[in-house]
From TrEMBL, chains A, B:
Biological source species: Urochloa decumbens
InterPro entries named in the record: Iah1-like, SGNH_hydro, SGNH_hydro_sf
Protein's recorded name: SGNH hydrolase-type esterase domain-containing protein
Keywords, ordered alphabetically: Hydrolase
Family assignment from sequence similarity: Belongs to the 'GDSL' lipolytic enzyme family.
Domain SGNH hydrolase-type esterase residues, every copy: 8-195
One matching Pfam family: Lipase_GDSL_2
Amino acid sequence: MVRPSIVLFGDSITEEAFGEGGWGSSLANHYSRSADVVLRGYSGYNTRWAARVAGRAVATVAGAVAAVTVCFGANDAALPDRASAPQHVPVAEYRDNLRAICAMLHRRWPGVVVILVTPPPVDEDGRRRYPYAHDYSGLPERTNAAAGVYARACVEVARQCGVRAIDIWSRMQKFPGWEKAFLRDGLHLTPCGNRVLFEEVVFALKDANLSLEALPADLPLFGDMDPKDPAKSFDDDERVD
Amino acid sequence: MVRPSIVLFGDSITEEAFGEGGWGSSLANHYSRSADVVLRGYSGYNTRWAARVAGRAVATVAGAVAAVTVCFGANDAALPDRASAPQHVPVAEYRDNLRAICAMLHRRWPGVVVILVTPPPVDEDGRRRYPYAHDYSGLPERTNAAAGVYARACVEVARQCGVRAIDIWSRMQKFPGWEKAFLRDGLHLTPCGNRVLFEEVVFALKDANLSLEALPADLPLFGDMDPKDPAKSFDDDERVD
């Protein structure tokens, strides 16, 4: 039987999920014997482009998909009159696009657990220090207030569509010093920020009955074998030749 | 079209591949837009048990498998008269088991690139400092000389079977201070040791025409889009509704 998989669909917060201390790596490590974590992250993408390519993106995923995290909005929320204007998407369209993506995922994989993840908060000072190349304006191209508008919209769409939401925008801001502790350039996650997101995803999956305890481990665990007769654990298996 | 995948089949060196700084995470990050990295690591397993369950293990993998790394031997090489005796497998049987696993992989996925990875070197001082629970003997249950016998056997089987080999046992020992730099407990890899293995796997995959450059990126890269008309990159796609 094919192992269940958890697909991570999103922008750079997702594409970087297997970087240093990444939340995707932590998930893959957490579920090392029970579920596959499949990366479908597209840096720079907003929901307008994601909604267009979502069908193509999921068509590249094989197997038994149990859950999908959907994390967009950081790019949609880029201000329309600053350096990242080409990525901006109005919030009404952002909602429509998220709804369309949810509907497509449910059509493709009936019964799949969808988890919408809001964009993270923005540290404007960090964005000023780490601007995109060729942006000499000195003005941040994203603000925390704008990201918050999209985060609230994301949570609302999740409620309307009957899917789970992780409000990482609110959650992270509960920690004093979140700006530098969780964001390495005002936008992308540090290892600590990745840890927060990882834990929220684990909680959401547990809530959806996809906890480590609920999923069967693939093949006998070494710690469960009888040291005096370890081969006994494999009595149902044939040696390959 | 389903993305090609790279399956990591092995013992704890593989099961831990998505831990901190792990070689599996680095691979998944490296191939973030072009290949899926699928974990099939079984801590504590030797090739006797792996050969018995290999069919079941690969049956849980969906999709288009392009390459498989096979990394066993660290447990087979455990000394037959010390604390990890139940894991020991004689080297002649180790060879047979590796051959059987290679043959099974080729039957299951004709044309698949198989890469045999030797066990890493053993730092006996590290094993004395971090013995398994209930081992009060003060004697390491593995030696570097024994691991070397299995490493040479692994390289030889690879040559006989016409598959690639990564001799991580020899490679790591070329670096002065390998004992503590690459092994955290005399056996398992530090982030630096993971880095060495990651780089060797990338070289081997490149040699097998599975380099980052050879594999198509999934969907247009943001950096390739026209900032004045980014949607143009998606002209062939339909928005989902």
